[in-house]
Amino acid sequence: MQQARAAVKDFYDKTAAESKLKGAVKTYIVGFALPPGVKQMFENESWFPASGNVLDYLAAAGGTGQAYSATDEAQLLASLESIFQNIIRDSISSSGLSSTSTELRTDTKIFQSEMNTINWSGDLLALNLVGGSRDRNAPVWRAASKLSQLGHANRKIFSNYGTDKFAFTRASTPTAVKNLLKTSSEALSVAENRIDYIRGNQSNEGTTAGKFRPRAGLLGHIVNSTPLFVAGEGARPPMLYIMANDGMLHAFNANTGVELFAYIPGAVLPRFIKYSSDSYAGEFMLDGQLAYKKIGNKLYLTGTGGTGVKSVFALDISNPTNFQATDILWEQAGDAAYNGLLGRTGSQPILAELNTQPVLLIGNGYNSQAAKSALLAINLLTGALQQSFEVTGSGFGSPGALDLDRNSNPDFIYIGDFNGKLWRFALDTSLASSGNFSASRHVFTSDNNRPLVVAPVAASHPDGGVMVIFGSGELLTNGSRISTAAEFVYGIRDKFDGGSEPTINSNQLVLQTLSGSGSQRNTSRNPITADKAGWRLQLPGGERLLANAVIRRQKVLFGSYKPDNTDCSGGGQGYMTELALYSGTPVSLIEPASKPVAGIPRTPIFIEIPPGGVVTTTPGCSPNCPVLADDKEITLIGEQDELRTVVKGRQSWREIGR
After folding, report:
1. Edge-first strand listing for the sheet containing 109-116
2. Least confident span in 222-226, 378-382, 647-651
3. Bridge partners of 413?
4. How confident is the prediction for the chain on average, in pLDDT?
5. Is-contact 5 61, C-beta < 8 A?
């Protein structure tokens, strides 16, 4: 047994170290018709598994953890089916969610993006929440299929480079841009063929010399970018916008799934040489975040480049059915952008107004040429830098807005940096010139200066001030995947006392801890005393916060993730945790506070059930399982293998349509 385990472990370790494999090859163990007495042969050994199944010893060495047992053909087939499903689930994972409405209606749709790590393809699905299927195998539409049906010649793709704005075709693309799309030894005709390839022409794909990398689909894998739904108005159809790692921002008709146009930021163009080659291994191309704002009768969309490129841009999307190159407003990109302050940022833009000017507020991200942390206020219409706040550091993450007077314009911004500092900025819109960050406060420093990347969220505290929720950890920089550093989720009360307002430290926070494992994780119930400024929850080693928390009804819901411990692996384990907002303690006396989910959990979305309404769902329980709507909401969590729905409210609740 020891020799067998050593062989399995050796195979796992060697494949994990082989970069071409992009991760260890796991070994699944099936025990078929084992003779009696096998367990008794080994049960006194020090290594004997606690599960009582001796073959789990081999499975653990092979990276799967649990062996399968079968005594007949039917059980063997069932075991193999389960193994194949696990393999598929390891290769496909879900990303962000969006919905057509925050109130439950019969036509409410959920949009979910996904990625395939075997062939680096992606998809975007439309699913009915009510009166239809939420089965990912039978969606309302799949964007990848619609894209293939549209045909490469019919796609409307636009780009910009320098002052040029153009349709991305071989005829309209400037020669200077074509030179970016070829190596020094390639002819201009190769660049033109590469343009056709990027547009979706697959006739020149293959594995022989001179061919481009074969693709399983035209839509690139979608990792960090969250779908953005924009409701229709008049002749403008409802739209869904998302960025993918094919280097494009895609604009889909939300009703039909048909792509109306796509946009390639100029910063992405030089990366297409690698993207089209066999050496491409899923490198990020475009994976930032989007936001939109209506000004008069115009609608504007802005986005960040993410970890793929240093870029921020804005488009006029007032007429998406007839989008033209002239609707590209501006792009700022590269090392020199904004005096070298722009780094690789996946910051969620916050749209605000400073001195009557519409601006987007973003954190500058990491790896900026200026090597500073900067909060940037950028004019939405021109791309000019209105204002910045700069401190020494490795870069700011995503900002979180606090609108105390509820006038749809933020009063304060909370933002964390890669050095573990949480900052608060007051937005002053009364200045005569350009608007400013009138006051700043260093609110808190994380334990061991761990990076604070995701956007903080805040809500009023009943005793004054606000409760701010944020967490540490990242999965962006080299070596971060294998980090086992202790990360925390924090809930601090920012009192707005005035005066010097000293920085809060960890000793002023009550420590809450996690106990249990798997589906039985729970948090401690240590009380918050009057001398404390809030709470902190220590996550198990290697687990970290990668998506924004959500505050609802004096509760906080957040997802955490622990990656596999090799840089080449794409796997890991996610958890969704719900705690009392002001104490960090479990909400339920019965249910565990923290439950496992598949893949990297994203920010959940909430759909209100109208008061007095009754909703009947089709999948699984129609027509006899209505859900009463007394003060309830639906929480949607995007998972690797399903769209999980939880109806929240009274203790007597049920899941619908799972």
Report:
1. 92-99, 109-116, 121-128, 141-142
2. 647-651
3. 401, 425
4. 81
5. yes
Closest CA to 528 of 545, 540, 512, 551: 512
Residue-wise pLDDT for 93-139, tens only, equals: 445 556 554 444 556 778 888 778 778 888 988 887 665 455 566 78
Give the CA-trace dihedral at 399, 509, 473, 363, to 10 degrees.
Answer: 20
d(CA 522, CA 513): 8
pLDDT of 113 reads: 81
C-beta atoms surrounding 331 within 10 Å: 24
Neighbours of 644 (CB within 10 A): 19
Please list, in sequence order, all residues whose beta carbon lies within 8 angstroms of the beta carbon of residue 234, skipping any fewer than 6 positions away. none
Provide the 8-state DSSP code for 561: E
> For 183-188, what is the mean pLDDT?
95
**CA–CA gap between residue 249 and residue 345 (Å, rounded):** 16
Q: Work out the average pLDDT over 234-255.
A: 95
Name residues whose C-beta falls within 8 Å of residue 55's C-beta, 6 or more positions apart in sequence: 29, 31, 67, 69
Nearest to 226 by CA among 22, 385, 455, 410: 455
Judge contact between 153 and 167, C-beta under 8 A. no
Q: Are 117 and 248 in contact (CB under 8 A)?
A: no
DSSP for 567-611?
TT---EEEEEEEEETTT--BS-SSS-SEEEEES-----EEEEPPT
What's the pTM? 0.80
Q: What is the pLDDT of residue 435?
A: 46
Degrees to nearest 5, angle at CA 592 with 574 and 590: 160
Dihedral sign, Cα of residue 578, residue 579, residue 584, residue 590? negative
Nearest to 360 by CA among 296, 289, 431: 289
Q: How far is CA 367 from the centre of its chain?
A: 20
569 within 8 A of 24, measured Cβ to Cβ:
yes
